[in-house]
Write a structure and sequence with these properties.
alpha+beta, two-stranded antiparallel sheet, 1 helix, elongated
Length: 99
Amino acid sequence: MAKFCENCGSPLKAGAQFCDKCGHKAVAEPRRNNEFVMLCPNCQGQVKNPMGLCPYCGRPLSEDPEERTAKGLVLVIVAVMVIAFLAIFIILFALIAIH
């Protein structure tokens, strides 16, 4: 019986430990009694018939790891910009107060 990745649905090679497409860890028995079982990518909870959010941690089940990395990078860039803006504002305020 062919196995499929519980994260992206791609067919898995025989004996594969990880999906070739998305890198998600393969589970020994992804289907039980016509129920689709997957592990939450955030909390690793077993979710039967996943639909949207994990019932254990509340995070999205289909979040792409690359998308998560991109969101983190955007947050870091915004944080650096805010800190730089505040530093410039404080320096300018100090210069104005001195004169």
